[in-house]
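[09:14] KT: can someone run the structure on this one? pasting the chain below
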Amino acid sequence: MDHDMHNMPPPSPSSMTNHTTPHMIMMHMTFFWGKNTEVLFSGWPGTSSGMYALCLIVVFLLAVIAEWLAHSPIFRADSSTGRTAGIAQTAVYTLKTGLSYLVMLAVMSFNAGVFIAAIAGYAVGFLVFGSTVFKKPSEDRKTAELLPPSSGCVC
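[09:31] RB: done, structure tokens below
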């Protein structure tokens, strides 16, 4: 433990943003609105409104892709050999899990816009790929037999 930290005054509420001190990094621990945040990578998206919008789009797309992978019948075992299908399913599951955890880590920035983008991405992904809205009645029975009961989100 660094002994210089004992001589430092406690941080004030106004300094509880992403300011750095020589010894520690302070970050938000409650939800906040604003484009000045860090999501997933140091310095990203920064203070630019355009980069913040790109950040929200990336989080939204990561959530949609995670839902697509969770409900996609592309890599199902219906036409492949057992071992090949099992390896493909495992790869898709691993990718879906990794994407879901990236979305979770983005939400842990406590930025309300990022949170809303993640929830909207999961909702749109489920609406398009998981719900019965865009499926024919015959597809519903086939998909229900192939898919395990899962919400798609691993977090």
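[09:33] KT: thanks! The mean pLDDT is 77.
[09:34] RB: yep, looked fine to me
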